[in-house]
C-alpha cells in the first residue's frame, strides 16, 4: 500500500505540472490580455508598453511561466495586475465562504441521497423510487439560475421570509443565525443538483450488488434482510459511490459559479467569473491549480477508501504489481 501511495503521489505531481502548463498556455492564448486593463482613452500605447514591461508581460510566455512557477514554489501566488494585490489575500477569504456554502449543501445532500438511494433499491419502482426519479430528472433538466431566481422571487420578494442574496445582512456580519438564513436558498439550489446524481448513483450501485449470486445465497440461508443489505451489499456498493464523492471533493473549494452569482455569494465561483472578465491571469491560475490539487487529493482519498472498504482491491493491486 505504501508503494502504491508513493507512486500515486509522484503521478499527481506530474499531473499538476501538466495542468499548470496547459492552463497557463490557454489563458495566455485567449483574446486580449492583462494589458487591456490599463488601456483607456487617455492612456497612450507607449505607456501601456512600459506598464507591460514593468510587469514582465513583454517576455516570452515560457519565461513568464518559469517565473510564476518559481514564485509559486516559494508560496507566492502572485499579484493582481490592476491593483497589485496579493492573490492569496483575495483567494483565502472567498475560499472560506465557498467552503461554508458547499460543505453544508454537500453534507446535507449525502444525508438524504445515500439512505434514500439504498431504500429505493429495495423498493424498486415504488412511490419513493418514482419520486426520487422525478426529482433527479428535475435536477438535471432545470437551469440552476432559473431555479435560484424562482426561489428568490417566492421566498424573498413575495413572502419576505428569507434574505434575497449576500452572505450576511449589512451590520450583522459574523452572526450565525443570520448566516443560516442566508444559506437556506443557495443550499436548496445546490442540494437539488447534488441529489439528481447521488440518489441515482447510490440506487444503481445497490441494485447491481443486490443482483449478485452471493446476495441470493445469503437470502436463501435465511439471513435477515437488514443484515444482507447493510453488512454485505452496502460495503461493495460504496465503491462506485466513493469514486463520485472523491471526484466532487473539489466542488467544496471551487464553488458553483452560477449559484454564487445568482445569490451574490462572495465565493470562489463568483471570483473566477469576475477575474476571467478582468483577465487577471494570476488569480485564474491560482484557482485552477487549487482545484486541480483538490481533485487529485479527492481521487487519492477515494483509492485509499477502496482498500479499506474492500480488501480485494488492495490484493488485486499487489497481484498486478507482481505480475
UniProtKB/TrEMBL annotation:
Query: What is the membrane topology here?
Result: Multi-pass membrane protein
The alphabetized UniProt keywords are: Cell membrane, Membrane, Transmembrane, Transmembrane helix, Transport
What are the residue boundaries of the ABC transmembrane type-1 domain, all occurrences included? 95-302
The record's CDD domains line, in alphabetical order, gives: TM_PBP2
Q: Does the keyword Ligase apply?
A: no
Q: Which SUPFAM superfamilies match?
A: MetI-like
Write out the transmembrane intervals: 99-119, 131-151, 179-199, 233-258, 281-309
Give the PROSITE patterns listed for this entry. ABC_TM1 (PS50928)
One Pfam entry for this protein is BPD_transp_1_N
Q: Which InterPro entries match?
A: BPD_transp_1_N (IPR045621), MetI-like (IPR000515), MetI-like_sf (IPR035906)
Q: Where in the cell is it found?
A: Cell membrane
**Stated family:** Belongs to the binding-protein-dependent transport system permease family.
Name of the protein described by the UniProt record: ABC transporter permease
Taxonomic lineage is: Bacteria, Bacillati, Bacillota, Bacilli, Bacillales
Amino acid at each position: 500500500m505504501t508503494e502504491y501511495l508513493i507512486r500515486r503521489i509522484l503521478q499527481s505531481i506530474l499531473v499538476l505540472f501538466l495542468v499548470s502548463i496547459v492552463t497557463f498556455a490557454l489563458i495566455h492564448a485567449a483574446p486580449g490580455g492583462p494589458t487591456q486593463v490599463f488601456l483607456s482613452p487617455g492612456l497612450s500605447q507607449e505607456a501601456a508598453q512600459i506598464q507591460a514591461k514593468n510587469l514582465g508581460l513583454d517576455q516570452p510566455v515560457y519565461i513568464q511561466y518559469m517565473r510564476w512557477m518559481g514564485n509559486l514554489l516559494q508560496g507566492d501566488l502572485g499579484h493582481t495586475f490592476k491593483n497589485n494585490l496579493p492573490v492569496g489575500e483575495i483567494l483565502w477569504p472567498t475560499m472560506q465562504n465557498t467552503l461554508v456554502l458547499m460543505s453544508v449543501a454537500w453534507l446535507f445532500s449525502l444525508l438524504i441521497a445515500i439512505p434514500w438511494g439504498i431504500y429505493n433499491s429495495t423498493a424498486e419502482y415504488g412511490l419513493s423510487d418514482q419520486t426520487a426519479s422525478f426529482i433527479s430528472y428535475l435536477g438535471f433538466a432545470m437551469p440552476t439560475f432559473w431555479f435560484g431566481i424562482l426561489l428568490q422571487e417566492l421566498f424573498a420578494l413575495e413572502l419576505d421570509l428569507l434574505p434575497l442574496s449576500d452572505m450576511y445582512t449589512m451590520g450583522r456580519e459574523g452572526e450565525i443565525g443570520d448566516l443560516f438564513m442566508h444559506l437556506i436558498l443557495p443550499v436548496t439550489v445546490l442540494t437539488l443538483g447534488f441529489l439528481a446524481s447521488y440518489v441515482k448513483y447510490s440506487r444503481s450501485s445497490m441494485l447491481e450488488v443486490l443482483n449478485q449470486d452471493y446476495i441470493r445465497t445469503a437470502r436463501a440461508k435465511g439471513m435477515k434482510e437488514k443484515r444482507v443489505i447493510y453488512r454485505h451489499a452496502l460495503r461493495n456498493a460504496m465503491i462506485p459511490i466513493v469514486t463520485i464523492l472523491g471526484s466532487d471533493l473539489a466542488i467544496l473549494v471551487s464553488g458553483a459559479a452560477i449559484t454564487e452569482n445568482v445569490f451574490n455569494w462572495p465565493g470562489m465561483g463568483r471570483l473566477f467569473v469576475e477575474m476571467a472578465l478582468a483577465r487577471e491571469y494570476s488569480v485564474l491560475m491560482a484557482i485552477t491549480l487549487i482545484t486541480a490539487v483538490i481533485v487529485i487529493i479527492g481521487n487519492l482519498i477515494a483509492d485509499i477508501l477502496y482498500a479499506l472498504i474492500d480488501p480485494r482491491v488492495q490484493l488485486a493491486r499487489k497481484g498486478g504489481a507482481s505480475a
